Amino acid sequence: MCVGRASRTHAWNETPPVSYPPISHPALRAALALVLLLAVGDCARPARAESKAESKAKMQSLDEQVQDIKSDVLGIATQLDRLEERLLYPSNTEVAVFVSVAEGETFRLDSVQIQIDGEAVARHIYSFKELEALQKGGVQRLYTGNIQTGDHRLDVHVAGKSGASDVNASQTFGFRKEAGPKLVGITLAGGGSSIELGGW
Amino acid sequence: MATAGPSLALAAAVLLAAHAAAARDLRDLYFGEALYYAYQERYFDALERLDTEIAQHYGVDEPKLDSLQFHIGRAEFSVGDFELDYRMHQRAGRAIRAVLEANVEDPVRNEAAFRLARILFQKEQPRDALQALARIHGEIPEAIRDDLEFLRANVYLALGQPGDAVPVLQGLQGSKSLQGFAQYNLGIALLQQGKTAEAVAQLGRAGEVSGDDAPLLAIRDKSNLVLGTLFFEDSAFGSAQSTLDRVRLQGPFSNQALLRAGWADASAQRFERALVPWSLLAERDPTDAAVQEALLALPYAYSKQGVHGRAALLYGRAVEAYAHELEKIDASLRSIREGEFLKDLVREEIRQDKDWVIRLRSLEGAPETFYLASLMASHDFQTALQNYLDLEDLRKRLVSWQRSLEAFEELVSLRRHYYEPLLPQVDAEFRKLDAQMRLRLEQREHLDRRLQHLLVDPRPELLATSDEQQASARIGALESALEGRSDEEAAALRARTGRLKGLLRWDLETHYHERLTQAHRHLAELNQQIDALNQRYQSFVRTRQAATHSYVGYEEPIRRLRAHVVAAQERLGVLMEAQGRVLESVANEELKLRRERLEAYQNQARFAFADSYDRAAKAQAQAQ
């Protein structure tokens, strides 16, 4: 019955519970003898206890196999990532645009739209979970694509709500693409009204 | 953690600095992207991103110059965290053990030992967890101090050593982050130690902790539920009743509390008061075990008050309700046999909802899921279900990757067909241009060397204009023609050519410095042109290489990856089947138990219905 608590969440019921004696009124106990017999059946019948132990061992073995395959699939994912990047986004033309939210910002971000050299390349509408992840400090990769080396223009449009008022902010930035991959970071601040270009 | 052992020492060495870095000090966008996924509990994506990023970090020539270097310690530990969250205990454990075995500072080793102990505790290996905790000595990072002690207390409790847990938990009573949890667990430790009076007082404190976040409210309810039960078992029914009343009506322990509150009143022979919680409970979701018991307890209270007619009616209603629930359980059991259960568990529209387990109860045409919420109370079922859902997620990914690989192959083929006929012609033209360019570059080098030489060995004639060079050549020719002549005319002509030569030399000598400066200026201008030419040249070379790289060298990696995907799919299919069978078997067992209990309730209700009916009829006859 003791409770455990993971460090990041109050997941106190994750700990295997120490069972507390079940409560039933004495008047019902006789009538529910069968129920109670079933409830304590694990202790009363050794054969069943043995099969329970077997089942536990089987589940543990399965759990380990599941972990193994997760590891294998993660390995495939990593290789696939590299292949995809090499094939679709060679470093001499690769450009990636990332979005983050400044610390302490609580405005509701609805969508971000970006254009590169006047062409709309990405638009994202945010779910509550995604917004929360941004507010906690996560960074979203909004766009990955290819452009030529040289100077380019980036237009960012943000829509959302800050308090009771709507937020609609736009900003234009210039950036230069050199021979290596270009990472562009956009930080949203000032209740969504301020859009800043990060120096990555 | 996916990286090799040697990297761990480095990672550990910078861990403290990295930990100090808040999320907002982010220098590596891809690490931020991994966090973005992790904060959404998309741990596979987070691990995929971070594994790739860390592998690339250690693959670059100078990792110290890489942007991930600033976060590398935190990134390494985050991988371990994500692995734990993704239920990959083995990998997380291995990575943490590697840190423990490395030569690292106390805070780093202690944090690693804490994480390892937490994994072992979660895997129900408390003795090993205690051994891991025993490795902790020296400085402990402040951020984990309370959690570490709380874990230690829980390990003692799991080992049946409440006497060791009590002082540890007493030391945590002031911890803000553990408010409620430390109080409750201390109460339980005292209870296990046999100090009932102290346990009761402690649980009373735990049941009154202030705060309004959901976990705290739940632990408060749990404390009051346990305390109320203790009072009940001690026949202190009044205290039991008032304590159970403190449990919220809408919380996760509400049904249990209402049931026990009713029993507390009934045990004190206050049957009219027991009717209140039981009536409330009897109207709730009938798949809940407490509600099912209340369906029987409510008419029992009426019969005890001598209201046999009402009792008979409610017993009759209970019989019907149990029959209905038995039908649902039978439908669930049948659906499980027919394989529908697993199909419903992976229905996408259900999994999009965070309360999906609750929603499954009302899923149309899926009776097999009615009792899922109650099945979730079983730890084995939860583990099996989570594994099954993870495997389903992996299955979908593998199917999608297989399609991606096919698309990649097509892309490579298209590029090959486009470039292969073009490139030989482009290369031929490029070679001509390349030869011309090299010639011009050599000429420029020659000029540069000559100008450098003029600085130490001035030779004005080398800076002569083309007119001057022609004039000089003509004078030279005249001088040659006059050679060997000794007449007067020749002498006069020699004098004239001598003057012309002098004039030419005068110009060359007097304008020498000006011309040298001008020559250097022209060379600098030429250098600019050469730089621009070089840039264009390099750009062309890169584009040319990119053209080849866009389709050459992909067949083997794609073939290898496809083989891996197919092999993983085969293994996954076998595993999913086995995991599905376990899930069905656990669900089957649990449902059968519920069925047997319901049958027992139904039998009891039938007997009680007949008895109450007889009594009601007798009472009516007596009244007449």
Q: Could you spell the SSE succession of chain A in H and E letters? A: HHHHEEEHEEEEE
Of all chain pairs, the largest interface belongs to: A-B, 81 and 111 residues
Strand content of chain B: under 5%
Structural class of chain B: mainly alpha
How far apart lie the N and C ends of chain B?
84 Å
Quick one: how many beta strands of chain B?
Answer: 0
Shape of chain B: elongated
The class by helix and strand makeup of chain A works out as alpha+beta
Residue runs with pLDDT of under 50 for 5 or more positions of chain A: 1-50
- Main beta sheet of chain A: 4 strands, mixed
Mean pLDDT of chain A: 76
- In DSSP terms (H or I, runs of 4 or more residues), the helix count of chain A works out at 5
Q: Summary?
A:
Chain A has 200 residues and is an alpha+beta fold. Chain A has helices spanning 26-29, 33-39, 41-44, 46-88, 128-135, and strands at 94-101, 108-116, 119-125, 140-146, 150-162, 165-177, 182-189, 194-198.
What features would you describe in this structure?
Chain A is an alpha+beta fold and 200 residues long. Helix content of chain A is 33%, strand content 35%. Chain A has 5 helices and 8 strands. Chain A has helices spanning 26-29, 33-39, 41-44, 46-88, 128-135, and strands at residues 94-101, 108-116, 119-125, 140-146, 150-162, 165-177, 182-189, 194-198. In chain A, the strands form 2 sheets. Chain A has a 4-stranded mixed beta sheet, with no helix packed on it. A 4-stranded antiparallel beta sheet of chain A has the order 3-2-5-6, with no helix packed on it. The longest helix of chain A is centred in the middle third of the chain and has 43 residues, at 46-88. The two termini of chain A are 50 Å apart. In chain B, helix 18 packs antiparallel against helix 27 (555-623). Helices cover 78% and strands 0% of the residues of chain B. Chain B has a domain at 425-556. The radius of gyration of chain B is 44 Å and the shape is elongated. Chain B is an all-alpha fold. Chain B has 27 helices and no strands. At the A-B interface, helix 2, helix 4, strand 1 and helix 5 of A face helix 3, helix 4, helix 6, helix 7 and helix 9 of B.
